[in-house]
TrEMBL record:
Signal peptide: none annotated. Residues 7-181 form the Ketoreductase domain. PROSITE patterns: ADH_SHORT. CDD domains: 17beta-HSD-like_SDR_c (cd05374). The lineage of its organism: Bacteria, Pseudomonadati, Pseudomonadota, Alphaproteobacteria, Hyphomicrobiales. It holds the Pfam family adh_short. This is NAD(P)-dependent dehydrogenase (Short-subunit alcohol dehydrogenase family). The keyword Iron-sulfur does not apply. Belongs to the short-chain dehydrogenases/reductases (SDR) family. It comes from the Bacteria. The keyword Metal-binding does not apply. PANTHER family: SHORT CHAIN DEHYDROGENASE, SHORT-CHAIN DEHYDROGENASE_REDUCTASE FAMILY PROTEIN. InterPro entries: KR_dom (IPR057326), NAD(P)-bd_dom_sf (IPR036291), Sc_DH/Rdtase_CS (IPR020904), SDR_fam (IPR002347), SDR_oxidoreductase (IPR051911). Keywords: Oxidoreductase.
Length: 279
């Protein structure tokens, strides 16, 4: 399939999961794609599917992020869309999660996302156009037991994205966050987890961890359909700021909005009383 006026897309974390499905769909749709992963042997086959530039990228390495962007600009002449997909998971109650694993989550999920944003922004600013798409999670809008630090990294990316959107909108650059629920990818089966557990959290974080393991291969979300939805949203005349993906994500996002509004309204008088009295 060919598309008129193809865009240049830079996608991170393409070896498995969403990243691979997104890259495959874009190439099959006739788009130009910079396909990246830490190990290129896992993505080299995508070169046969269309106009692909295969590059190694570990997003926690800011210098390498810059080299990838420079190579993409030299090869295709521009980057129209950055899709920040690279990320890792971790199972464990907050108290069970050690500092090393917590920092690793932030290094990859948050700072890795920030690194690629810093690399593409000068070029997008110069052209006064571009789209930055950050894959977070419904766990970036709602906290879930057993994945507290993972959710924290995704909440952080949501906050970064909300601010970035306001800063770059006057420059012709759009920012979108995508919040998937459970999809049939390798994420649940490949995530690390706390080596030592605490009995008191067995009915919360422990139960959640067991449910994640049991869900592998049975998740409701279809990553191929998600890839198509992402491209459609990016190419829309007015792209959304947020795109929950999957029924569970939509239901959870709507409930979070309703619960937040109800909480604020219930305590509105006390909240407003904290300001100096009007004179």
């Amino acid at each position: 399939m060919s598309t008129q006026n193809p865009k240049v897309w830079l996608v991170t974390g393409c070896s498995t999961g969403f990243g691979r499905y997104i890259a495959e769909h874009l190439l099959e749709a006739g788009e130009k794609v910079v396909v990246t992963a830490r190990k290129t042997d896992k993505i080299v086959d995508l070169e046969q599917k269309g106009d692909a530039l295969i590059l190694p990228l570990d997003v926690i390495d800011r210098d390498q992020c810059q080299k990838v962007v420079d190579a993409a600009e030299a090869h295709f002449g521009r980057i129209d869309v950055l899709i920040n997909n690279a990320g890792i998971g971790f199972f464990g109650a907050i108290e069970e999660t050690d500092e090393e694993n917590a920092r690793r989550l932030f290094d990859v999920n948050f700072f890795g996302t920030a690194n690629t944003i810093h690399a593409v922004l000068p070029h997008m600013r110069a052209r006064r156009s571009g789209m930055i798409v950050n894959l977070t999670s419904i766990g970036g809008l709602v906290g879930y037991t057993g994945v507290g630090y993972y959710c924290a990294t995704k909440f952080a990316v949501e906050g970064l994205s909300d601010t970035l959107r306001k800063e770059v909108a006057p420059l012709g650059i759009n920012v979108m966050t995508i919040e998937p629920s459970a999809f049939r990818t390798e994420w649940a089966g490949s995530s690390n987890e706390a080596p030592a557990t605490i009995d008191e959290y067995d009915s919360t974080a422990g139960e959640a961890r067991r449910a994640y393991h049991a869900s592998v291969g049975k998740q409701a979300g279809d990553p191929a359909r998600a890839a198509k939805a992402i491209r459609e949203a990016v190419l829309a005349e007015q792209p959304p700021y947020h795109l929950p993906l999957g029924n569970d994500a939509v239901d959870a996002a709507l409930k979070k909005a309703e619960d937040l509004k109800a909480n604020v309204v219930a305590w509105e008088a006390l909240s407003r009383s904290a300001d100096f009295p009007e004179t």
